[in-house]
Amino acid sequence: MAAAAAAAVGGPQPPQPELPAPGLALDKAATAAHLKAALSRPDNRAGAEELQALLERVLSAERPLAVAADSEEAAAGGGGGGGPGAAEEEALEWCKCLLAGGGGYEEFCAAVRAYDPAALCGLVWTANFVAYRCRTCGISPCMSLCAECFHQGDHTGHDFNMFRSQAGGACDCGDSNVMRESGFCRRHQIKSSSNIPCVPKDLLMMSEFVLPRFIFCLIQYLREGYNEPAADVPSEKDLNKVLQLLEPQISFLEDLTKMGGAMRSVLTQVLTNQQNYKDLTSGLGENTCAKKSHEKYLIALKSSGLTYPEDKLVYGVQEPSAGTSALAVQGFAGATGTLGQLDSSDEEDQDGSQGLGKRKRVKLSSSTKDQSIMDVLKHKSFLEELLFWTIKYEFPQKMVTFLLNMLPDQEYKVAFTKTFVQHYAFIMKTLKKSHESDTMSNRIVHISVQLFSNEELARQVTEECQLLDIMVTVLLYMMESCLIKSELQDEENSLHVVVNCGEALLKNNTYWPLVSDFINILSHQSVAKKFLEDHGLLVTWMNFVSFFQGMNLNKRELNEHVEFESQTYYAAFAAELEACAQPMWGLLSHCKVRETQEYTRNVVRYCLEALQDWFDAINFVDEPAPNQVTFHLPLHRYYAMFLSKAVKCQELDLDSVLPDQEMLMKLMIHPLQIQASLAEIHSNMWVRNGLQIKGQAMTYVQSHFCNSMIDPDIYLLQVCASRLDPDYFISSVFERFKVVDLLTMASQHQNTVLDAEHERSMLEGALTFLVILLSLRLHLGMSDDEILRAEMVAQLCMNDRTHSSLLDLIPENPNPKSGIIPGSYSFESVLSAVADFKAPVFEPGGSMQQGMYTPKAEVWDQEFDPVMVILRTVYRRDVQSAMDRYTAFLKQNGKFPGNPWPPYKKRTPLHPSYKGLMRLLHCKTLHIVLFTLLYKILMDHQNLSEHVLCMVLYLIELGLENSADEESDEEASVCGPERCHDSWFPGSNLVANMRHFINYVRVRVPETAPEVKRDSPASTSSDSLGSLQNSGTAQVFSLVAERRKKFQEIINRSSNEANQVVRPKTSSKWSAPGSAPQLTTAILEIKESILSLLIKLHHKLSGKQNSYYPPWLDDIEILIQPEIPKYSHGDGITAVERILLKAALQSRMNKRIIEEICRKVTPPVPPRKVTAAEKKTLDKEERRQKARERQQKLLAEFASRQKSFMETAMDVDSPENDIPMEIATAEPQVSEAVYDCVICGQSGPSSEDRPTGLVVLLQASSVLGQCRDNTEPKKLPITEEEQIYPWDTCAAVHDVRLSLLQRYFKDSSCLLAVSIGWEGGVYVQTCGHTLHIDCHKSYMESLRNDQVLQGFSVDKGEFTCPLCRQFANSVLPCYPGSNMENNLWQRPSNKSIHDLIKEVEELQGRPGAFPSETNLSKEMESVMKDIKNTTQKKYRDYSKTPGSPDNDFLFMYSVARTNLELELIHRGGNLCSGGASTAGKRSCLNQLFHVLALHMRLYSIDSEFNPWRKLTQLEEMNSQLGNEEQQPEVPILYHDVTSLLLIQILMMPQPLRKDHFTCIVKVLFALLYTQALAALSVKCNEEDRSAWKHTGALKKNTCDAEKSYKVLLSFVISELSKGKLYHEEGAQECAMVSPTAWSSESMEKYLQDFCLPFLRITSLLQHHLFGEDLPSCQEEEEFSVLSSCLGLLPTFYQTEHPFISASCLDWPVPAFDIIAQWCSEINSFTERHAEQGKALLIQESRWKLPHLLQLPENYNTIFQYYHRKTCSVCTKVPKDPAVCLVCGTFVCLKGLCCKQQSYCECVLHSQNCGAGTGIFLLVNASVIIIIRGHRFCLWGSVYLDAHGEEDRDLRRGKPLYICKERYKVLEQQWISHTFDHINKRWGPHYNGL
């Protein structure tokens, strides 16, 4: 046979395209076996050739072409598609056969798997897969585990979380490069140690021959299928088609990889073998097809802008000799700045989208950059070409998975990584052109994260393949495609180019995968060191960073509002963070020790060079251009962060890395500009630029950005300030903030650059900035732990925070590998040191709180730092919130009663390198500013605020705290004030300057100012004159002039050539002195010093003269121990006192002067004359202020009123402490009930023509149907075995009973024998407010016209109560009637029971005529319609004849039953607690009864069938015989007694008399008792029965026989024995019979329990009808108390001996006769159906309270079972699985698969399970969703993490645990039907859930 097969194959003939002959196809196995044998011989050349030939034929390459061509027609023809597919399957079959070498393929797979040595899991997953990450076990932060490995390993107590993979990933279990071995799972721990036997040679021999051909075939397919698109758009349709055809082939390869290590190593050999590749793909030889495919391959290469080195010249780009990489040559060539001309192939994809940027893109040209990285690809192996096509086809998921599945093979991993790097540039180009860049990015990262997370591998590739050069170059090229000219500073001549943030590249984050790879490799120390050592790379990288310097420039709109608000700022901030800051943090993390100083010097050096180039490029001299700001200065920030690191960790000398003064001046300008712009934005000066500018200001300080943006900026300014001249720096600040003109002593001034309305907030901004600058120590000496603590305190002071929001708000080092891991120990330990945990609390209002952390008292006391809070607030309101909380703390602890000022906090000591910063506090310019402001505040000049004063005092205090101790011997320095001529103050030390008196000041003021009118004093000593205005006089001090002068000096000093004098630039906004003609000079008499101003300020603040008294005069101790707690918290007065004390402490001189000032009793300050103009503005201010205060007051009052109303009205959930709302006044003397209408406000009775109604909510409810007979709630199923069956629910039992009755008895009679409404019953509830029905109609009209309503639909009659806003949907009319009448009816009458029975019968017999057509009756009718429409038809129609009146009758009395039963459940299932109705006066049952009774009386029950007859009269026996032919009526003993009660009551005319009520109850109790006896008799066994029959029979003739249960029982037994009821004691009988013998106690208990439900409902009914209170009692005496309350027990009854239920009986007719009559009905039924007869007698009436399902402790158990569970309808795993918490059904949320008639599954289920109310747990989100009718709302979660927080959507993935209290609240709301009232956020679901 083998020979024949070989002959058929027939040696190496030229390949034939047709299929192998069918005969051969049958015998693949034999052929394979033969070939395998042939190949096993030592000389296997013949076999090899034979196999080649076979493969040539089977895997013919002609076919794919045909397929590609045919697939169009095939798709069209439908039928024709079989051909090509069949051929491919055939080919695959051949391959499988050949691999197995004749054996079975399955067995072969198993055999190979046995040799799997792989110790790695390596499971590859795609997006949306649920995986785990354990930070405790991970070495790399990208480490991830599949769920199986995670649960198999031991991670208890670890810091792990579950996450949904975004890009896909692979399991790292078993890879010790990425994770610690302790975390490996059981499988991969064992594998790594055990030895695997060696693989036998012949097992995989065939694979080595077959697979190269197979893979080549696949590559040919890919070559053939790729048509270079005509336009620049690869038509995705075509690509996808090819990929679909290749699906089976790639899947086959994927299956091979899953066979384990042995097969993977064969594949690796095949994929990386260069010889194989050369032989097969060279395209030489006579095979035309192969040639063609090679040509297509070359075309594809070219079209990608890549060259194949053999074609020497492509596109005119001359190649360096192909083999040697030009990188070596490159050296510094790239350093000269700009970059290589982009290859022309990229040309077309740039001009295509040129419209994007507003300006023409900039092209950089100069061919220095090495092209080989970008343009050369030479493929030497299958692997390389496969990757090429994978990229070309935009990373199809299947291919990616195959390539990744191979990674456990180490040799492959290295080869693949090198190939990946080789293709890196090509990947970037493809990514840029791609339309699906998101998907593609994810797939790229899916691969690269597996390769680059491994340090060893990354190092190897860096050394051998120039990985770093490639990455940096590729990033540079990528960004080059979207550069535009920068408009910063000098628009015309700027040479600087920046990225255009409007480009798709930036907007869509297309650069993300490449940057993320770069950050990933920089996290490895060995790689980062290479980067930091390579000067060429650093230069290139700084070039790259400079593209972002100054991007997204904002220009302030001065005239009209900008039309189009661009949102490009998102892109800009993301780009700076991801492309610049994160790599920076990565590099910084390797510069931690002294040995790395050199790296820092390198970075700083090239950074400064790049900055210098930037200043030159934008033509920057000394003034920033006005009205523009950019938030992006990455070069400044690189420089700042490396400086900080150098000083903090590397002990570098700061001055050795700082540039000259001129450069420092330039460096400070732009960051300072940002700080000033922030103040402008918050002052609403940029309002015309739209909201986005505010967004930028917020993002700049927001927690994820602040430590890469604002913190470095402030630090850089601190460094500049510490090295520059302090006067120059201070004056620059005030000039930048545009408030120089404000700093004048004059009461009026002109500001040339700022509107008056902005002055105040800009001044506050400037001072606040100075305070932050001088007191922030983040980079100036704080340790990491101190920083963390300060950040945490600042966040907690603003608001209580949850654990996760704290983690989010505290700026951690943005680079994930920096070692500060969120949740690390330091975080937890600091948190527990500064905060207390507040466990989640539950308010009955339903607002569910999370677990919060709140600052400890000592933190408020000592660590609250307003400066840090101001720095970190995104919203200004947070600062206020922090101050409010601080105030509340001080009040509560009795530390300070008033409104405190921000406390002054001691600072960490400065690092010695930054000591110069404190010179700012000791410079004259600042002192002049402080003096001026104090003076202005004292004189009440306008535009100054308390905030300004606060900051001024803060600065003075900072100065005192940080004063240099020069003033040891002060007396020497006193040479009189006449020393200095040109300045205000003698020296620069604040301590000395504080006491310096200033007598006169010359100011320039507008001529209108009051100062001009004054006479100048005679002796004007000009030497102590100064002025804060730029007046022309030489000796007058001017901020701006001073600054110009200094700048000039510095520049002249630093530029050697004299000719290079910088033009003194006077910008237009500083008008030359005298240009404003109306300015004139005046001289003010001041005669104050800072100290005297402070003391006067103290008087002013306290409102008392001479209020300041130096404390040390009384208590000298104060000077010795200055830290006095009384000064640490307080308001301005306290602050002034604290400052004066510190001033006195610092110098004896000051102390003396303070005492002197205080001695001179200060005369009251004369009131200044106020000019009319001033008065006007002042009045305006005052009026505004007053109006504001009034408004506040009104609002507060309104809020408190509202609150108190809400407290009384809205107590929905807490019945105990209820304040009853009066529906009707209850005093008996009022003749008629009076109602208040909440709409028109009038009170009055309800009348026939203007009825009043109660606001009610009608809803269908199935809560009752969920009761079961055991108290334990069912558990939610969490395994396949657990199931919940609804057979034992109340609803199911009642259903069964009704259908059983309907099978044997007359339908109309059945419908009177039971109640419905267990499922879908209508529950009526009210908020207790009433309104006129006509008022309500007009109210509804107005709602209908009001468009903005959300949450409820007016068309369905829904509205909210106009008073308490409770949700409602109907109005229940109040029956007009007087209370007096009620009282008459209640008087007991002494009629005998027989008379009463007759009366009742007569009253029922009267037909109830419907009252005449009044408004009232119309309303009654319409509300009845509403009630019917509330529930679905299936819950109303139980009759066999649809639409029969019996249906309505049954439905109506069942509504009453439903409401009574539900009230009973709300009371806890019994009436032991007694008291008024739970809902207080809020019950609407009385009104409901009227409506129902009115309608029920329209149906007269035929007197012959009225059950009342059967209950109270003995009938003649013969009447039974006549109606044999039709179905009999339901025997009275099978009737539900409670239903009978409601029928009897509602058939009576209303209002009912009390004695009639009692009569009905007595009659029914007798029936009930008989039923109990009958049920008992069925329950016990034969012996017991006969025993009782005898004992009872003996006593039958005693006097109280009718009230002895023993007698009655024996009689019932003897009567029923006449039928067949007790016969057939079969096997099933035993189930009902209780095995224990019955004692008289247990029988008594059984009888009482049987009767109790009826007594409870009856008592409730009596309470509602007659308003009597329910007595409270113990549980064991409930029966006796209720029966006496109902009047069943004679009043004289003695209760000493044990209570006997039978004593309540009061038989209307002789007991034995009537019992005999009732039993005979049953006997006649059991003649035929004994079984059913017995079942119907035993009614299970002891239902327990309803519960939701019991949930497991840990959420993970639910999640793991349900998130993979398949849907029962469509057998797919749903996208959003949900579980019903009432019945445990698994449903698809929003699943279209399970839609029925446009209803999605959740909505459908909510109707079937809860009659419109559904409670679902969303498995993937851990959240509970409530569906109520047509609306839904998210309720929240009942699972919280260890910190008491929800984790909606499982974003954090921390373990969650059940919160029992929350679940209780949910259950309570379900049972009490209050979802609508308590949850506020409802929306329509349009049946789509």
The protein's oligomeric status is: single chain
- Give the strand order of the largest sheet, numbering strands 1, 2, ... along the chain: 24-23-25-26-27-30
Share of residues in strands: 5-15%
Shape: flat
- Helix fraction, binned, reads 40-55%
Helical segment count: 74
Radius of gyration: 46 Å
Which segments are poorly predicted (pLDDT under 50) over 5 or more consecutive residues?
A: 1-26, 61-84, 310-359, 365-369, 815-823, 967-982, 1013-1037, 1055-1077, 1163-1170, 1209-1230, 1378-1385, 1518-1524, ...
Structural class: alpha+beta
Distance between the termini: 65 Å
Number of strands: 30
Rounded average pLDDT: 79
**Main sheet overview:** 6 strands, antiparallel
Features:
1889 residues, alpha+beta, six-stranded antiparallel sheet, three-stranded antiparallel sheet, 74 helices, flat
Fold topology:
Blueprint: H1 2-9, H2 22-26, H3 28-40, H4 45-58, H5 62-77, H6 82-100, H7 105-113, E1 124-125, E2 130-134, E3 145-146, H8 147-152, E4 160-164, E5 169-170, H9 186-193, H10 205-225, H11 236-257, H12 261-272, H13 274-281, H14 288-303, E6 313-314, E7 317-318, H15 327-330, H16 347-351, H17 372-375, H18 382-392, H19 397-405, H20 410-422, H21 424-433, H22 437-452, H23 455-465, H24 467-480, E8 483-485, E9 497-499, H25 504-507, H26 512-522, H27 525-533, H28 535-546, E10 554-555, H29 568-588, H30 597-617, E11 628-629, H31 634-649, H32 661-682, H33 691-701, H34 710-723, H35 726-736, H36 756-775, H37 784-798, H38 803-809, H39 825-834, E12 835-838, E13 852-855, H40 857-863, H41 866-872, H42 876-892, H43 924-938, H44 946-961, H45 990-993, E14 998-1006, H46 1010-1013, H47 1039-1054, E15 1079-1088, H48 1090-1102, H49 1117-1120, H50 1132-1146, H51 1148-1159, H52 1172-1209, E16 1235-1236, E17 1243-1244, E18 1252-1261, H53 1290-1304, H54 1307-1313, E19 1321-1332, H55 1333-1345, E20 1359-1360, E21 1367-1368, E22 1370-1373, H56 1379-1386, H57 1393-1405, H58 1415-1430, ...
Antiparallel strand pairs: 1-5, 2-3, 2-4, 6-7, 8-9, 10-11, 12-13, 14-15, 16-17, 18-19, 18-22, 20-21, 23-24, 23-25, 25-26, 26-27, 27-30, 28-29
